[in-house]
Design a protein that fits this description.
1411 residues, 6-stranded mixed sheet, 37% helix
């Protein structure tokens, strides 16, 4: 009954070319939209811009602002884009807030592309979420006037008539196509996508004036179409092989896309019924690849292949959407599909068809009717399906019976079955799909061999197609479109419309993975549950993060799509949650991600750096760890990067090791910074030493070595390494000097101390060799060995002989002989045999080849064996032998007896027995067993453990030697072997023959020792056996390191204080400590207020330091005098009397100072007259002085004075007696105390007779002119490494960068510290006795003022070059005057070069410049 209500498919067919071609017009949907309520475009599509997606995709509609509308029909608002399905179901609304829209289009993934006139374009999905891109600055400046959007890109025309192409939809930079000359927009134009062109690049076809141009990225070509132009419409076929061109005279041309052949020319004025003559076509579109549709306001004409037409009337304006196999026609109320009837469907259902498929279909239909009638007659008694016997009596087309017809078309039956299956896929109505499939099923029953897979696949496909064609889904996709699109793309389109349930069912039905569906569903759920709605949505449900995460995870587990099974990545969903601002939800989802490679990138993007590094380490993937480390190193500041690794603790320790491996090979600067930030001074030192070994530049190598020494010296446990590195630096500097001495003829750089000594000896630098020997404490034995080897290689036999006679050899003279013989100089070695031990002379003579002398020595000692060997070596001739024997000073029979003993004696036969186990002949023993059998019987290693443990302290690299001694032992050294043997019990019960290490990995924490032992198992039977013992190295701390590891662990402290405003005494004390190396046993030195604290691990060390301090200074020197040492040196400037106050006397009756160095005042010497009294360097004189301030004030008031008028114009002049008469001259500047203007709060001062108190006491001469030049000194001092006082301000600019003993302490005024240090340096320069007590070191070379001026002075100007002779004389005169005024004073204190030491002779100190 239901079947009778369905029209026959051929009712919608119309024939062309006398029935050779059929076209169908199928009604698909009654559209659900209401155009009158969409924004004023009216109820007809003519007022709207319509863009439809291929493959039955959605339709975007927007009001066309270029069309006039009646006032009052709508309100003018911003453009609104409505998106519908092909059935008119509303999908999305897009509110456009930017400038004017130029074009709309769809991508292959059903994303709507919207381009505006400013060159900005957006890609919207069906949820209203978009991505925004730009065509660049040219489009933004000149604007976009038109564009064509296709599935894989777009082409836009800018205001300058240039063509911009966008390839892909990932925001690629637009390219430029070669545009033809245009004065305005083209009349019409299209874009051929890359998949439709032979070049696989997009090509533009545009009508410009009267011709057509084709443009690509290389050129534009004029196709010379002037005879028919201009062309108002251009359309390309779906396969890109043909073009439809409409001329202004209403002629339609169909040509090939290469413009080589015209296929058809048709005059539209001949259409029947005729369209309105004044109305041009609205649109031209292809229907398949062989027909063209011409759309007018209410009609559509189809132009077939042969030039025949079909007429389709419509009640409203139609819009054409080209499909690969037809055309969708959209009107205001309906959606239709026009296509050419597929060949398979035509062959089966066309009236009068004689195709085998038609006969098979008729037979199937007749058989079905007969079965239905038979079943009704039998009262449903037999429900069996059709079989071969039931085919009898079935009447087919032409009157033949069914079986006869089937037999007749048996050769074509398989083709007929395939045609019915394909026709079922091409049919839209479900009833006819079933009939066609039943016909195929009926026909396959007669086939012996048939593959059922196409039949099953078609059934599945039709179920899917029928489901998506349902009007609530609204995807009118044909079978051909389905095969072109692929099922995966169909699932993607369903998920983009949020039809997740249908998509999942289709995926399960087709056995496809649901990964993308579940991912899209989870992302959509996250977006829909946001607290506030996003674009295109009405708002979220406000569901909590925990609830959303639980729902997603439960859904995935229910679908069997957990991470790692179906491939759904929680990380991708977590990224969506993070982008939505839901960090907590993203974290919860990431916890369920099992693939670290997916977790880590998102964690990095979320700035969860610590977790990202931990996850990468946990994954065990080194590449992933490197990715995280390099990402963090690039993004984070260096300090934060290292702190992140340090804060990670043991969990990220492998990452720290990988970073070190990478940095060691690729970025040593980063490795150096890493060690520095982690306070790994030893590693920093080792790295610098490694770099030094690779550096070719000597200066750079020396600097690296010195820097390494500094790092080692800062570690209290690495004193030995610091000393060795310092020695290496000294050796390097020495080698550089030696190479200069020999003019580079010999290479000293890089040699060891021994090799350096040898090379010095070979080059004749014997004194240098002796000096190196003394400096490096080379023992006499080693030095003699080195000189022996060096002189031997130099073949300096005379020097070697003189050296051997220099004094008694500490190594003896046997090494002389053996070394010379080993080098092949036996004749030179003979002279030293006589100085050797008599017992060894015979053998030594033999080694030298002196057989006569050897025989003589052996004969004198009565050594018959040696004599026999000597005689054999001497000669075998009897006459010569007899003559030699007669020359010997002993009895002849002795020699003949020796010769007789040299005769051959046959060996004694040994009785042998067979081994009781294996039968091997052996010498008899008490067990009657051979050694292998004896070892198998008796285990002599029983009672000796095969494994043991060793305790190792990583801080000091010492092993525990039982019972309680910690010993330094290098890997595979004798010391370590002795410790290993001590750990073995039972070793004293056997005889140890040999022991040695077996190589193991350095980081395996395992040591293997191979032992060879012997033991007597039976009477006179000794068994030797080899076995291995494995030792496990256990890390721990020795007691010393345990104490040092604890903070502030010390046994004694010395506190040194000085209560004065300046700290010059402390600076002098520091230099004394450095010179005598008195601070070598200190645990740490801490700088505190008014002094220093010295900490010691042992009280005895503190007592030694106390004795040293007592010997150089009083503990609290508070008196101002000429010099302070272990005594206070006082000087009376008026009488030159001197006295010394010892520390014991001072502390019994201490006295206090009246003024300090800060109270000194600058005076100008007006006159000086020595009195003749001289004591040492002091000369008593009467001086007339005036304060410098008086001259400054008079000069400012405009008074001009000379030296002769000082007495009259300067009222503040003083006469005094001074001890500086030997160095002062009129006009000099001198520092002194102005007592008349000083206010001393001292009872002792007040008790003095005022008449005996001078007005001024002069202290020292000053050099202000020279000091102002800030001349760099050619010397420098060194300073101890000290810690700052606890609580010192860390932001103080002086912390860690000051001068001398006070420069590393926060809280002090930087200017005062620098001033004290400068005064201290000046005191050193001015006092030769003070310089003799301390060490001064060479600084950088100093350039003179003249050299610096010459270097900075610009070249002569052009006028100066023209100035001639007089200009040059003026310039020289000016220069001479300048040099005279600013020249150095004759008695300006200077430090001689011979007072300076090289700066590599001290350790544990840091350099301080002398200026």
């Amino acid at each position: 009954m239901a079947d009778s209500l369905v029209d026959h498919p051929t009712t919608s067919w119309e024939a062309l070319n006398n029935g050779a071609v059929f076209y169908s017009r199928r009604h698909l949907y009654q559209l659900q939209w209401n155009l009158s309520s969409m924004g004023g475009g009216g109820s007809d599509l003519s007022g709207y811009i319509v863009a439809g997606a291929r493959f039955g995709g959605p339709v975007a509609i927007m009001r066309d602002n270029t069309k006039l509308i009646a006032l009052g029909r709508t309100t003018f608002t911003k453009p609104v884009i409505q998106v519908f399905s092909s059935s008119g179901i509303h999908l999305a609304t897009i509110n456009w807030e930017l400038s004017k829209i130029v074009s709309l289009g769809w991508t292959a993934s059903e994303q709507l592309v919207v381009l505006n006139e400013d060159g900005q374009y957006r890609l919207y999905d069906l949820q209203g979420i978009y991505r925004s891109f730009s065509l660049g600055s040219e489009a933004a400046e000149t604007g976009v006037i038109d564009a064509r959007i296709f599935e894989s890109g777009l082409v836009a025309i800018t205001g300058q008539m240039s063509l911009l192409e966008v390839r892909g939809w990932e925001g690629q930079k637009p390219g430029t196509l070669h545009a033809p000359p245009m004065t305005g927009p083209p009349i019409s134009w299209i874009v051929l996508p890359p998949d439709q062109t032979s070049s696989r690049h997009a090509e533009v076809v545009m009508a410009v004036e009267g011709t057509i141009y084709t443009c690509d990225n290389l050129e534009h070509i004029d196709q010379q179409m002037t005879s028919g132009g201009p062309f108002t419409h251009i359309a390309a076929s779906p396969n890109g092989r043909s073009l439809a061109l409409l001329t202004a005279s209403s002629n339609l041309w169909v040509i090939t896309s290469d413009f080589q052949r015209k296929i058809l020319e048709f005059d539209l004025s001949t259409l029947s019924p005729s369209p309105p003559s004044s109305t041009p076509p609205n649109q031209i579109a292809w229907c398949g690849s062989d027909a063209v549709l011409i759309a007018y306001p209410t009609t559509v004409y189809l132009l077939g292949p042969g030039g025949e037409t079909l007429f389709y009337p419509y009640g409203s304006t139609p819009v054409l959407v080209t499909e690969p196999d037809g055309t969708r026609v959209l009107t205001a109320i309906e959606c239709e599909f026009v296509q050419r009837v597929p060949e398979s469907l035509e062959s089966v259902l066309r009236p009068g068809s004689i195709a085998p498929a038609a006969f098979l279909f008729d037979a199937s239909e007749s058989f079905a009717k007969r079965e239905a009638s038979s079943s009704s007659a039998a009262n449903n008694s037999n429900a069996a399906g059709p079989g071969p016997g039931a085919r009898d009596g079935v009447v087919l087309r032409g009157g033949g019976r069914a079986d006869e017809s089937i037999r007749a078309m048996k050769p074509d039956l398989a083709f007929a079955v395939d045609a019915c299956i394909d026709a079922a896929g091409r049919e839209w109505e479900v009833v006819w799909q079933k009939k066609l499939l039943n016909a195929a099923k009926f026909g396959r029953a007669f086939l012996d061999l048939f593959d059922p897979r196409p039949f099953v696949a078609m059934g599945q496909t039709l179920k899917v197609l029928n489901a998506i064609r349902y009007y609530e889904i609204g995807i009118p996709m044909t079978y051909q479109q389905y095969t072109l699109l692929s099922p995966e793309q169909l699932l993607s389109r369903l998920t983009s419309r949020s039809l997740h349930l249908l998509a999942l069912r289709v995926a399960n039905f087709l056995s496809l993975k649901p990964d993308s569906i579940l991912k899209h569903w989870a992302c959509a759920k996250i977006a829909q549950t946001r607290p506030s709605g996003g674009l295109g949505s009405a708002g979220g449900s406000g569901e909590s993060d925990e609830s959303v995460a639980r729902g997603i995870i439960e859904k995935f587990e229910a679908m069997g799509a957990g991470a790692g099974s179906a491939g759904v990545s929680y990380a991708e969903i977590a990224k969506k949650a993070w982008e939505s601002g839901r960090t907590g939800l993203a974290t919860m989802l990431l916890d369920h991600e099992t693939r670290a490679a997916e977790q880590v990138p998102l964690l990095l993007g979320m700035r969860e750096d610590g977790r990202a590094l931990e996850k990468a380490v946990d994954s065990g993937d080194t590449d992933l760890v490197y990715q995280v480390l390099l990402n963090l190193h690039k993004r984070l500041p260096l300090g934060d990067f290292f702190k992140l690794i340090e804060d990670g603790g043991p969990r990220v320790a492998p990452a720290a090791k990988l970073l070190q491996l990478y940095a060691r090979d690729q970025n040593r600067e980063m490795l150096r910074d890493f060690y520095y930030s982690d306070d790994r001074r030893v590693d920093s030192g080792l790295l610098l030493m490694e770099e030094a070994s690779l550096q070719e530049d000597i200066t750079a190598r020396f600097n690296s070595t010195k820097a390494a020494q500094k790092f080692f010296s800062e570690d209290r446990e690495r004193g030995f390494e610091a000393k060795m590195v310092e020695e290496s630096a000294k050796l390097l500097a020495l080698q550089q000097t030696l190479e200069k001495d020999v003019d580079g003829k010999s290479a000293f750089i890089g040699l060891s101390v021994s090799d350096t000594i040898m090379l010095c000896i070979q080059c004749g630098l014997n004194k240098r060799a002796e000096r190196i020997r003394a400096d490096w404490r080379v023992s006499d034995r080693q030095f003699w060995w080195l000189k022996l080897r060096a002189l031997t290689e130099a073949k300096a036999w005379d020097e070697l002989d003189a050296f051997s006679k220099y004094k008694k050899s500490p190594i003896g003279y046997e090494p002389f002989v053996r070394h010379l013989v080993g080098k092949g100089y036996g004749k030179q070695a003979v002279i030293y045999v006589a100085k050797c031990d008599p017992a060894k002379r015979g053998e030594l003579y033999l080694s030298c080849g002196e057989y006569r002398a050897a025989a003589k020595e052996f004969s004198e000692r009565g050594d018959r064996a040696g004599l026999s060997f000597s005689l054999i070596k001497l000669d075998s001739c009897p006459s010569r032998l007899q003559g030699f024997i007669l020359s010997l000073n002993f009895r002849e029979n002795t020699a003949f007896e020796t010769i007789k003993e040299m005769e051959f004696v046959p060996p004694t036969l040994v009785h042998r027995v067979l081994c009781a186990d294996c039968g091997t002949p052996i010498e008899p023993n008490s067990a009657n067993l051979c050694m292998p059998c004896l070892r198998n019987t008796v285990d002599v290693t029983e009672g000796i453990p095969k494994s043991a443990s060793l305790s190792f302290c990583r801080n000091c690299d010492r092993f525990l030697s039982p019972p309680a001694t910690w010993t330094i032992a290098q890997p595979e050294s004798r010391e370590l072997l002795a410790i290993c043997l001590k750990k073995l019990k039972g070793l004293n019960k056997v005889r140890l023959v040999d022991a040695g290490f077996i190589w193991t990995e350095p980081h395996s924490k395992r040591l293997r020792v191979k032992l060879t032992i012997q033991k007597e198992v039976f009477t006179s039977t000794i068994v030797e056996q080899v076995f291995e013992v494995e030792y496990v190295v256990q890390h721990g701390q020795c007691p010393d390191c345990t104490r040092l590891a604890a903070k502030n662990t010390w046994q004694a402290v010395i506190q040194v204080r000085q209560k004065v405003p300046h700290k010059r005494t402390f600076l002098f004390l520091e230099q004394l400590i450095l010179k005598h190396n008195a601070h070598k046993d200190t645990v740490s030195i801490k700088e505190v207020k008014d002094g220093l604290d010295f900490y010691y691990a042992h009280e005895s060390h503190a007592q030694k330091m106390t004795e040293f301090l007592a010997s150089v200074v009083p503990v609290h020197p508070l008196t101002i005098c000429s010099r302070v040492g272990n005594t206070i040196h006082l000087l009376d400037p008026s009488t030159l009397q001197e006295t010394d106050v010892t520390s014991q006397v001072y502390w019994r009756e201490p006295f206090f100072s009246l003024a300090s160095v800060t109270d000194l005042v600058e005076f100008i010497v007006l006159d000086i007259e020595p009195s003749g009294t001289v004591r040492g360097k002091h000369v008593l004189a009467d001086a007339e002085v005036a304060p410098s301030s008086s001259f400054a004030s008079n000069s400012n008031s405009g008074m001009e004075m000379d030296m002769d008028s000082h007495h009259g114009s300067v009222s503040t002049t003083f006469h005094t007696r001074t001890h500086l008469g030997g160095i002062l001259q009129p006009g000099d500047t001198v520092m002194g105390y102005w007592l008349t203007r000083s206010n001393f709060n001292s009872p002792a001062f007040e008790s003095l007779d005022p008449s005996r108190i001078p007005d001024v006491i002069l202290v020292k001469k000053s050099y202000p002119n020279q000091r102002k030049k800030n001349k760099q000194r050619n010397w420098k001092l060194k300073s101890m490494a000290k810690e700052a006082e606890e609580g010192a301000g860390i932001n103080d600019s002086t912390s860690g960068y000051g001068r001398g003993a006070l420069g590393r302490r926060g809280g002090l005024d930087q200017k005062r510290v620098e001033k004290d240090y400068e005064l201290f340096l000046q005191s050193i320069e001015e006092d030769t006795e003070m310089r003799a007590a301390i060490n001064l070191y060479k600084g950088k070379p100093v350039r003179t003022d003249t050299e610096m001026k010459a270097a900075k002075a610009p070249g002569p100007s052009k006028q100066e070059r023209r100035g001639g002779q007089y200009a040059m004389e003026i310039e020289e005169t000016s220069q001479t005057e300048s040099e005279t005024e600013g020249g150095e004073e004759a008695d300006f204190p200077d430090v001689k070069l011979d007072e300076l030491l090289d700066d590599f002779e001290e350790m544990g100190i840091q350099d301080e410049e002398g200026a």
